[in-house]
Every structure is written in structure tokens, then in C-alpha cells.
Amino acid sequence: MLVKTEEIEDIPKDIRTGKKIISIYGLGFVGTAITAVWLRAGATVIAADKNNKIVNSINYKKIANTEPKANEAFIEAVNNKRLFATRNIKLASKKSQIKIISVPVGIKNDVADLSNVHSVINDIISNLKINDIIIVTPTVPIGTSNQLIRIIESKTKMKVNKDFFYIYSPERIAIGQAVSDIENNYPAIISGAGKKSVKIARKIFEMISSKTPIVMTSTKAAEAEKLIEGLYRDVNIALANQIAILCEKEGVNIWEIRNAANSQPFSNIHKAGIGVGGYCIPIYPRLLLQTAKNKGINLNLASISREINEAMPAHCVNRILTEIKQRNRKNKATILGLSFRGNIPDKRMSPTYDVVNELLANNIKVTIHDPFFKRDSLLPKSVKITNNLKKAVRNADIIIVATNHNQYNKLNDEFFIKNSRIKPIVFDGRGILDKKKFTNIKLITIGN
User: How far is CA 50 from CA 81, 83, 115, 121, 149, in A?
Assistant: First the structure.
């Protein structure tokens, strides 16, 4: 039975009263934020995840996520019986009318790995009902939504925009501020498989955001928009990194130059750095390159930018090695920061891993400090990790700032001399240390 206009108008009320239940698939960083936002909007939510530990932590109110505003929303909703978690994806689909997919998209051999998305879709459609709404949020290659719709229609014999509705809205969040990003910071990008899907998308997303959603003309346009957001940043960072290398050779300071250049409104040079991490910027250009290759297009700027940014950890370590050889230093290094970005507990694809490998390949012992981590199974066993900063720098004659945690901003030569017990060489891979505070030991800054 076709959804009538008045029924679309009633969707917000139906969500708040629990007449329409939302199921959310994948409770990682993104799924956690999306769940929290919908709970704060008054929805009843089924949180579906195949990780038993995550499911139990929600149901028993022992939630360990650190996303601001999320824990409170989860605990209140469990108490009010508006949230329960399950590993049974098919059951979640059966009991809900709105299904939000937030599982991660990986990459293998520079090709998108959509296996998580396909797995959830297959489980959902086993219990897909007339007028159910499917919302997909992961960043995906251009054309993925059209492929998913064909799969759903083929396996269910149902028709999109007649029997079910499909919405694509890529997440636009940063860890540590994700709930605020959805609710207030950025407008949602929405698209749908036809006019009714788009109308439904408008009604749904107006419930959770103070910003008017940006409606794209097609799901392909929305998919491309999200990828190009990431590509822009990757290319801009690559430009900053190449300029940084030039500045090092010329003996000028990229940070001084950048500040002056960005005083002009048409210049927006990003920050140079020891590497680019996270599950966004390093991956999105690869997904675009995959599409370009399939279409016979040479997207060489994206490819070159990736090469530049991936080479930065090795470049920075080579600068350190040059200094070591000149000074006949010992071979013990402390890296400050495992997170890929400052002030968040997220180490996915962190450049610190590459820095570690470069140092170990040159027979340098490595200790890592990070306020958020005491252990990490991805690190070689020989690498020590601690969240005790004074202990981390003890006897280290090489200090490398790899993450811009606030804890590191005010460090000075007195701290390093006192706690290292020697005069270490300090390499600032994020441009956050004040050179005026380093008069007694050598401070090397990227791009200077």
C-alpha cells in the first residue's frame, strides 16, 4: 500500500510515540553517535551489532564509549525501555520500521570492501516489510546505492518508492564532537531513490538537526559529495606537506608562511604533519580512484596526494636519523601520541604505526605515550606503551611529537631534560611546540 502524504507528515510523531521503531546496525564510533542523537530526539531504538561485548555493555548499562553526550542518552533510554541491543540482525529488522545502516566500509588492495554493508542488507531484507525505510550512512563508492537497491528489489521482489523507501545520507562527524556535529554543526546531506524517499528523508532529518538538510538530486551525487570532501582535505594536506619539505630545504618556516598566506580569504592552506590517519581521509581518495579507474579516468592529483601523505612518516624519521648521525646519539626514541588526531581515543590508521616501523627498521628502541591508551595489540611486542608521560620520556634521547594532544602543547626543554635525564633531540611533527621554550635542547619542527 502506497504511503500517503499525510502519513509522511506523521513520521516525526510516529517516531516519538514509538509507533515507528528505529533499528541501527553497527555500534562503532558512527553508530554510537547516530544512536545517541535519535535517543535524544525521543525515538525508540534497537541497537544491532554482532559484537556480544558491545551488546551486553548497552543492555547492562556498562557503556564504555567516550563520545560526549552519548553515555547519558544510552543509560536514560535503557532505563526508560526505549533502547535495547541485540546480535540478532534479522530480529531487529522484523521489529523496526526504519533501518539505519552504519557499519564500516573497508578497503582491500585499493578496492572498497562492502562486505559489511552487503551482510547487513541481506539480514535486513529477510524481514523487510511494506513501507519500511532503509537509510545508509557509510561513505561508499559512487553508484553503490543503485547497486544496493537492485539487490534489495531482486531478492525481495519489492519495488523501491512503492513497497519500501531508500535514503542515502553520508555521516559528517568527527569523533569527540559527533553528537553536536549531527544536531547543530553541519547540515545533513540527504538523497533518496525518488521523490517520496526524499520527502521522508527531509521529515526524518529535520527531527535531529537544527540545520536545514542539503537535498542532493541523486544518491550518486550524495555519494560523490562525501568522497570529494575527504579528497579536498587530502590534497590540501599534501600541498602543505610538499611546501613543508621545500621550506626545510630553504631554511624558512612553513608555519609563519602559512599564517601569512591564510590571512588572505582565498587561501586555506592546511597544516603540514607527520602523517594522515583515521578512517576517512586516507580511504576516501582510494574509493574515488577506484571509480575513476573503472571509468578510464586518470585522477592523478588524488593519487599523487596519497603518495605524498603516506611518505611523510618516513620523511620525518629520515630527518631525525640525519640529526642522530651528526650528533652520535643513542638509539632510544619516545613517540608522543598514538591517536591519529589530538584529544580523541582513536588510533585507526594512525601514522604513528608507520613512524614506529621506520624507527624499528633503523634499530631504534621505541616507547609510546598516549593519555588514552595503555596497550595496543597492533604494535610490535618490543614497543612499550604507557599513559605516564614522565615514565615514557625517561632515558629517551629522541622525542617525537606525533599527535597534537593538548597535553603536549606546553611542554618545554626543562621538562624533557629533567625527566629524560639527558638532553634529548625533540622533533615536533605537528608544529605545536613553542620554539621560545627550547633554548637548551635541539627542537626540530616539521616545515622548518
Answer: 21, 16, 14, 14, 24
Q: Which residue has the cell 597534537?
A: 404
CATH class of the region 5-217: alpha beta
How far apart (Å, rounded) are the C-alpha atoms in residues 193 and 167? 7
What is the distance of C-alpha 395 from the center of its chain?
35
Which residues of the chain, if any, have pLDDT below 50? none
- Per-residue DSSP letters for 154-217? HHH---BTTTEEEEE------TTSHHHIIIIISPPEEEESSHHHHHHHHHHHHTT-SSPPEEPS
Cα–chain center distance at 193: 27
- pLDDT of the residue at 7: 83
Q: What topology does CATH give the domain 222-448?
A: Rossmann fold (3.40.50)
Q: Is the CB of residue 333 less than 8 Å from the CB of residue 399?
A: yes
CA-closest candidate to residue 334, choices 378, 377, 392, 277: 392
- Model pTM greater than 0.85? yes
The helix/strand/coil state of 398 is strand
The per-residue pLDDT for 64 is: 77
Q: What's residue 6's pLDDT?
A: 65
At 2 the pLDDT is 54
Do 128 and 156 touch, CB atoms closer than 8 A?
A: yes
Which residues are bridge partners to 332 per DSSP? 365
Are 312 and 282 in contact, with CB atoms under 8 Å apart?
no
Q: How far apart are CA 251 and CA 258, in angstroms?
A: 15
Angle made by CA atoms 416, 418, 420, in degrees to the nearest 5: 55
Listed in order, the ranges of the chain carrying CATH 3.40.50.720 are 5-217, 222-448
Q: How many Å apart are CA 200 and CA 71, to the nearest integer?
A: 29
Give the per-residue pLDDT at 118.
97
